[in-house]
Design brief:
Elements lengths: L3 H7 L1 E3 L3 E3 H4 L2 H17 L10 E5 L6 H14 L6 E7 L2 H17 L1 H4 L3 E5 L1 E6 L2 E7 L12 E5 L7 H11 L9 E6 L3 E2 L2 H10 L4 E4 L11 H8 L4 H9 L3 E2 L2 E3 L1 H6 L2 E2 L11 E6 L6 E10 L2 E11 L3 H14 L3 E6 L4 H9 L4 E4 L3 H16 L3 E4 L10 H6 L2 E3 L4 E2 L4 H14 L11 H14 L6 H8 L2
Parallel strand pairs: 3-9, 3-11, 4-7, 4-8, 8-9, 10-12, 14-20, 15-18, 17-20, 18-19
Antiparallel strand pairs: 1-2, 5-6, 6-7, 13-21, 15-16, 16-17, 21-22
Helix pairs in contact: 4-5, 14-16, 14-17
Length: 472
């Protein structure tokens, strides 16, 4: 059996042009490999003891994280073990999962001896298959996380798992470890933000003797030169540079949206549209106690005009579907965007009825882009809000915006954000027909703009309150 070190000595990697790994690897990469070899061989029954059962590596960007996961997966299935490997490598979304698969595929193309025994196949999901077992590459979008029994579990870039769905996926997968007393877990990620569940997790496992945790700030020798780093960091704020490139956990900063909202123009609510204006409609269904929301907007001159924002509590999917139909009839020339994970059956039924409806896949990056677009419109004053709209149990769109914040990772924070997300979907639906749209603002620029807005409008009052006082 080839040890991991021996296997790496034979491997050619594509960084940036093909070279033997042994010619470009740094000492810390060999140390990591030796540690991972012990952990994996103990999990497969090939070794009877290992100092550590699990490992967590917190590394800066450019420190071989995704590629190292691909290499470990390839070596693990390359040769037979006492017990067949049943492994899962988990990424935040399909795009990140595909990067792992692509890295593995590149190495297979560069190494004939490896390609003869290891292959990558798609059977519902991506799988790396070899004599030693199978490792499935999953994303947190996958709905089948519960009930797994595994020998190896790998998490990639865990600090990017910021949605409730990705956290539930992590919990489902991580909680399977006790099913197999030899199961190994490996976490490889960038530093994140203090106070998040990822930060608490790293702090907890650092005190567990079964875990090896590397979580040191600073930089080691890397394939990323200082010149390349300087260019990459030029568009980032200082805290993100420290976090991403120097491996320092940062305090989460967030800014309330109410100051931006107060700067935007207003108009009277419209509940019936004309047949010649194209309307974007966004629908966000809320389960349990969450709100369900429908927002309608159109483009006028160079401004997005929000016509109406309806909110409902306690609707069944069928009832919400009927509300969507009612709105679509009131605004006949439209494009509707609906979260495909929430109401896929509704999307199919409405399409069959001739409604111009499309599924939108709200990945982390897609959400950030949509939120950034709406905030860019607010910053530039290119979006107008209807006064006192979307009332649901004395709540309104304005009251929701007043409670929302954006953190320094571009994530929307707030207990209730259903109306705002339906607005994001509506604007995206409007843009799908070629409507000019602003470039989503960068996070550093967003933070700077929001600081300025907060200084100009330090009072988090609702626009309705200002408007109502003006009437008396």
């Amino acid at each position: 059996m080839l040890t991991y070190t021996e296997w790496l000595n034979r491997l050619t990697i594509p960084t940036p042009e093909p070279k033997p790994f042994k010619d470009v690897a740094f000492p810390w990469q060999w140390s990591d490999a030796a540690l991972l070899e012990d952990i994996v061989l103990y999990s497969t029954g090939d070794k009877q003891q290992s100092r550590y059962r699990h490992a967590c590596f917190i590394r800066p960007r450019g420190y071989d994280k995704t590629s190292s996961i691909a290499r470990l997966c390839l070596w693990t299935v390359y040769q037979k073990h006492t017990n067949l490997v049943k492994g899962y490598t988990c990424a935040v979304d399909e795009e990140q999962a595909s990067l792992i698969a692509e890295s593995a595929a590149e190495m297979l193309l560069l190494n004939d001896w490896l390609r003869k025994v290891v292959s990558i196949k798609r059977q519902k999901s991506l799988r790396i298959i070899g004599p030693g077992g199978v490792i499935r590459i999953m994303s947190s979008d996958d709905s089948s996380a519960w009930g797994k029994r595994l020998s190896l579990l790998i998490f990639d870039e865990l600090t990017h798992w910021t949605t409730p769905k990705s956290k539930r996926f992590f919990t489902a997968m991580f909680s399977t470890l006790p099913k197999n007393p030899r199961a190994a877990c490996i976490i490889i990620s960038n530093a994140g933000h203090v106070g998040t569940w990822q930060h608490k997790l790293v702090d907890t496992i650092s005190k567990d003797p079964s875990w090896y945790v590397c979580n040191q700030p600073g930089r080691l020798p890397s394939w990323v030169s200082e010149d390349m780093l300087a260019v990459a960091a030029s568009g980032m704020d200082e805290s993100e540079v420290r976090r991403v490139f120097y491996n320092e956990w940062q305090e989460t900063a967030s800014f309330n949206l109410s100051s931006l909202y107060l700067k935007c123009p207003t108009h009277s609510e419209t509940i019936v549209g004309d047949a010649y204006t194209h309307y974007g409609i966004g629908a966000d269904y809320g389960y349990a106690d969450s709100l369900s929301a429908i927002t309608v907007c159109h483009y006028e001159n160079d401004t997005v005009v929000i016509d109406t924002c309806k909110a409902f509590r306690g609707l069944s999917p069928n009832q919400f579907e009927q509300e969507i139909i009612n709105v679509s009839k009131s605004f006949p020339y439209h494009t509707i965007y609906i979260d495909q994970y929430q109401m896929l059956n509704t999307i199919e039924r409405l399409s069959q009825q001739g409604v111009n409806v499309y599924p939108i896949k709200p990945t982390q990056d897609k959400n950030k882009q949509m939120i950034g677009t709406v905030i860019s419109l607010m910053i530039d004053g290119k979006i107008t809000f209807p006064v006192v709209t979307g009332v649901c149990e004395n709540e309104s769109l304005a009251s929701e915006i007043n409670s929302l914040s954006v953190d320094n990772n571009g994530k929307l924070i707030g207990k209730t954000k259903d109306r705002f997300m339906s607005l994001c979907y509506a604007v995206a639906a409007l843009q799908s027909k070629g409507v000019p749209s602003p470039t989503p603002i960068s996070i550093p620029k967003l933070m700077m703009k929001m600081k300025q807005a907060r200084q100009e409008n330090p009072y988090g009052v609702h626009r309705e309150q200002v408007w109502q006082r003006a009437q008396h």
